[in-house]
Amino acid sequence: MTARVRPEPEGDWPALAAAAGFEVEQSIKNENHDKHWIWLYELWLRNEPQLRAELGERVTANLIREARAGLQRLPDPDPAELLILRRPLPGQHLQEFAESLQQKRP
């Protein structure tokens, strides 16, 4: 998934991933994320008639709406990161939880 680096506490992706049952296996700066989406949105807008002919009115209307909204919010000042998430092995969270409880005992 692609995420934005945000100031704490919203940007604490490892904690958010853990709360959802995932671990962040790797985090990669995605420096071309905004450039890619700007290019794609502009391409959709330039080729609107062809999209309507091939995809139909409803799909094209959704793409054009997304492109216009996307171009208004890009580029985003916060850097994008590609997060590689994984679910822990079955029971791994339980083991880690038990260990954390033992560490908290006086």
Count of helical segments? 5
Helical content, roughly?
A: 55-70%
Averaged pLDDT, please?
84
Largest sheet: 3 strands, antiparallel
Distance between the termini: 40 Å
Widest β-sheet, arrangement of strands: 1-3-2
Shape: elongated
Uncertain segments of ≥5 residues (pLDDT<50)? none
Structure description:
- By secondary structure, this protein is of the alpha+beta class.
- It has 5 helices and 3 strands.
- It has helices at 13-19, 33-46, 48-55, 57-73, 92-104; strands at 2-4, 23-29, 80-86.
- It has a 3-stranded antiparallel beta sheet with strand order 1-3-2, covered by helices on one side.
- Helix 3 runs antiparallel to helix 4.
- The longest helix has 17 residues, at 57-73.
- The protein is elongated.
What is shown here, in short?
With 106 residues, this protein is of the alpha+beta class.
Keywords:
106 residues; three-stranded antiparallel sheet; 3 strands; elongated
Helix and strand topology:
Layout: E1 2-4, H1 13-19, E2 23-29, H2 33-46, H3 48-55, H4 57-73, E3 80-86, H5 92-104
Antiparallel strand pairs: 1-3, 2-3
